[in-house]
Amino acid sequence: QVQLVESGGGLVQAGGSLRLSCAASGRTFSILTMGWFRQAPGKEREFVAAIGWTFGNTWYTDAVKGRFTISRDNAKNTVYLQMNSLNPEDTAVYYCAANLYGSNGRPVEVRSYADWGQGTQVTVSS
Q: Cα dist. 102→89, 113, 126 in Å?
């Protein structure tokens, strides 16, 4: 099992930036990919971005391409989500998640991820 703790959420005006962090602990050697997801009120949890833990390959949902950047620091067991040009539609609770070796799912799918953080609120005002 991998324990995940997110930080960095908050309130920002449209056009602003935030950087989310997710610190992993526990069985980090079993991580295949790390992902960020978000869930707005009344909506399903949706994929935002993911990164391969070993090789750093990345995936993004179309809505955030060119605005968000996912990165990782393996020495710190931490994954980041740099969010620029934020707009009110980005308002949601953001979760990081760990996809472990042995998973058959794709990095963009919620069901692929075994371990989740508690979430951090991001609110973008217009």
A: 34, 11, 43
pLDDT(104) > 80: no
Contacts of 18 (CB under 8 A, 6+ apart): 8, 9, 10, 12, 83, 86, 122
pLDDT 10s digits, 49-78? 999 999 999 999 999 999 999 999 999 999
Q: How far apart, in whole angstroms, are the C-alpha atoms of residue 1 and residue 66?
A: 33
Task: With CA atoms as reference, report the closest residue to 107 among 61, 45, 75, 68.
Answer: 61
The C-alpha atoms of residue 122 and residue 109 are separated, in whole angstroms, by: 21
Chain-wide mean pLDDT for the chain? 96
DSSP 110: G
Cβ neighbours around 85 below 10 Å, total: 13
How distant, in Å, are the alpha carbons of 5, 84, 90, 96 from that of 1?
Answer: 13, 32, 29, 14
Beta bridge partners of 98: 34, 115
CB 123 within 8 A of CB 101: no
